[in-house]
Design brief:
The chain is of the alpha+beta class and 397 residues long. It has 2 domains: 1-114 and 313-397, Rossmann fold (3-Layer(aba) Sandwich); 127-311, RecF/RecN/SMC, N-terminal domain (Glutathione S-transferase Yfyf (Class Pi), Chain A, domain 2). It has 12 helices and 16 strands. The chain has helices at 39-50, 106-109, 124-127, 131-144, 146-167, 172-211, 240-261, 282-285, 288-310, 327-336, 355-359, 385-391, and strands spanning 5-14, 17-22, 28-32, 70-78, 83-91, 94-99, 102-104, 115-118, 218-223, 272-277, 280-281, 315-319, 343-347, 362-365, 370-371, 378-382. The strands form 3 sheets. A 7-stranded antiparallel sheet has the order 7-6-5-4-1-2-16. Strands 8-12-13-3-14-15 form a 6-stranded mixed sheet, with helices on both faces. Helix 4 (131-144) crosses helix 5 (146-167). The longest helix has 40 residues, at 172-211. The chain is globular, with a radius of gyration of 22 Å. The relative contact order is 0.18.
Amino acid sequence: MDNLALMRLEFVDFRNYERFSLDDIGPLTVLVGPNAVGKTNVVEGVSLLTAQGSFRHPLMSQLVRQGATHARLKALVVSGSRRLDLDISIAEGKKVHRLNGKAKPASELRGLMPSVAFTPDDLFLAKKAGALRRRALDDLGSQLSANHYLIRRDYEKLLQHKNKALKEGADPLLVASLNEMLATVGSTLEAYRRALFSRLLAAMAERYAQLTGGHEALSGRYVPSWESSEEPTPADLPDRDEAKARFEKALERRLPEELRRGRSLVGPHADRVELFVAGLAVEDFASQGQQRSVVLAWKLAEVALVQEILHQQPILLLDDVMSELDAARRRALIDFLADDIQTFVTTTNLSYFDDDLLARARVVDLAASSPTSPSRPVAAKPAPESQETAEFHSSDV
């Protein structure tokens, strides 16, 4: 496996940074500093350059430093046989991606240098069964398959068009014609998601068993909105033509209700991803510790799938999650960190890490704007704390 590794980062007018650079990046980088200093902004920049998206799902305008007209992010990625310059320019609400100086659509860059992010908000993956799990599946699928990304994009455009038509009281014949296209694209997206979840769940169950010493079993199922949770889960993935036929019948059956309510009620945007521990729904019955183990198993399973499908080690981005995990789960996560998985960790407190881990880590003190190792310089010029605090309001996350 000829793994790519991130060697250099540079941000200009990105979030709270007028300029930030980090050279000679090794296997493990720990970014330490108080709240509102800009730790999450650094790992978000890495996510934009690798996953071609942010785990915060911000507006483009929020990525540009206040008072600046545009932002620039650069990364140098190398392996034994390749050297890649990744570049993102953000201005006027648009992003331009470049690879080795040539403009490229983001869809062509996804999966080139993948990353997996684990943030405190990911803990809601165990507490809520709706949009967060669907988004997590699609974000992973978009890195693993260009087709997944394109189908998801096409479905969201069609759904937006249909919802607008419903809201404006469009002719039922127009809505019916949109439903024909939705059935084709939606059933395809459902098939991609269901197949991906099947593989993810198998990896999750294995890692959950490891975390709990085999005392509890994790299971789950993907339930399209046109199926009932009460129906038995099929042993095999359904045929795509059969899934499309079921979707079409549901669209036809619920069309009068959609016309009356002015919004789309059936489709992948309303599918459910259900998880169970010992046969009980995680969001309703699992303890806080069980929920945290489920989420940790989910993120470790994402890493495993990237390795298995893309034959590339992803970059692991751990944003302030150590404070959210108890000692046992912190230990399990730290034990997972190996030299072949390049990792960035943000924290306010180095006491979460033992001396052995810190001895092999590059510790960057963002509050001091210099690392603990003077031989590996970092230049960081954060804006005043008031600006950083303003950018971390709830809509960013």
